[in-house]
Amino acid sequence: MKKNINIALLKFVALAIVLPLALFSTSCSNDEENDSPRVSEVSMKTQPKVKYVLGEMLDLTGMVITLGKGENIKDVPYSSFGEEGITTDPENGKVLDFSDEAVIITIGDTGSGMIQAIDVTNDIVALIVKTEPKANYVSGETLDLSGLVVTTVQEDGTTADVAFDDFGKKFGTTPMDGDVLAVDNTNVVISYLESEAKVTQSIDVIAFEPVSATLVTGPTKNVYDIGERLSLEGTVINYVLPGGLEVELSFEDFAAFNITTTPANEDKLKSTDNEVQAMTASGNVVGIPITVNQLDVTGMTMEFAPDKTLYDVGELIDLNGLSVRLAVTGKDDVIVASEDFDIYGITTNPVEGTAYEEGTTEIVVSYPGIADTITISLGSEILYESNFTDGIDGWTNQGNDGGSSNVYAQDGVMISDNIVVGTNTYSLQLYKPSITLEKDAKYKITIELMAVPGEGGFDFSFSVGDGDGRDGYQNYYGNETLSLLGSESTIFTGEFTMSNNTTDAARILLNNGYQTNSVIVKYVKFEKL
């Protein structure tokens, strides 16, 4: 350990290793003394030994200083200090300790002198492994230095034993305790970080290439529903290596030993999953049984259509946005997004990622064992498709000039009843706002309306037109009239080309006019062709 040097002295010595003191002399009482030469300069010509080990004796024998007396300059070796009245503190031969930081050289009674810094240390210069740590490993195991004890050797020969737990920040190891080992790890280098002292401890790491394996404990959770994420926590496997060495590994150790599983931990489980396979890098496989409960699916309907339904030849089929609703016996409906179709055994034709071919008009979605399929028409981009399951789906009911009605969603349809007509035919309007139309693009609208049973038939008009007044609320398409008779639905399909400039504020308008009959809106779809 190095001594602590006085701060004031450090600042002083930092200016120069040898720093002359200010010289001065005093006047004598007689003329003879006043006329004698004075010391005008003191400097170090040859340094003495300045580096020591704790307990060594101060050696000033090699020191030579230079004195200036008037016009004369004289070199004074240490052996002549006595003749010149020069003293040192500490004296030559003193046994040194950490408090000895400098030698003060005084020139007689003149008050002149100088300071020479010295350095007293007792560093650790060597390490010896006294107690070896664990030395034999299998690749993938972590280094364990818990049993290590080293002996430190200091400059003065003093020794001390240091256990690994007491290493603190003064010792380091490469690799570090807890590091995952590989076969190319052949030794551990132990270093004392405040000096060059280090020692190497050999270790032996053999490859993890088991010849057999046995499942000791399966995962804590081994029964799942389709779509649940696999959890392998609790899994333990015993591996036997060549020569009979056995290694028991928990799931948390798998990554360190390059053990992979299929399906992987946290994967969503498929209806066909009944076993997890754990495989080592050398190909050894262990089966881990699991159970995935099957769903009793009684029906399938589309929840949301895919974002893209309009393709050029060669474009890849993209089902992003598509989801279906599965009706399951004894359970709530299950909504499945397209990215999870494979998990539930849902198939599509054509398959996502295949190139669109000319003449392909639809994508068919199927569930195993269910006769009914979902058909998604291609050749258009669906800009809006109604879904009145949870509300009126963004439609606006607007009454002016005394017109009013009650609009609500029920059983998957939108109903407008309790109608009070206004002054004008346009006083009561039901519309879907914020539709984007592009100039010269072609569009298709499909609408299905129905009269309320028992209220009789009537005519009802609709259109696609300006929704923000930019074009004077004119119709871009329509005014089409539907005749609603009895209790049967009426479906209308029409196409048009947008001749006006592009707008993002068009609307689909159901114009109530002067009729007072209730109307049921069952379905509305608006497509870009």
Automatic annotation (TrEMBL):
<dbReference type="Pfam" id="PF02018">
    <property type="entry name" value="CBM_4_9"/>
</dbReference>
<protein>
    <submittedName>
        <fullName>Carbohydrate-binding CenC domain protein</fullName>
    </submittedName>
</protein>
<dbReference type="InterPro" id="IPR003305">
    <property type="entry name" value="CenC_carb-bd"/>
</dbReference>
<feature type="signal peptide">
    <location>
        <begin position="1"/>
        <end position="30"/>
    </location>
</feature>
<keyword id="KW-0732">Signal</keyword>
<feature type="domain" description="CBM-cenC">
    <location>
        <begin position="381"/>
        <end position="510"/>
    </location>
</feature>
<dbReference type="InterPro" id="IPR008979">
    <property type="entry name" value="Galactose-bd-like_sf"/>
</dbReference>
<dbReference type="GO" id="GO:0016798">
    <property type="term" value="F:hydrolase activity, acting on glycosyl bonds"/>
</dbReference>
<keyword id="KW-0378">Hydrolase</keyword>
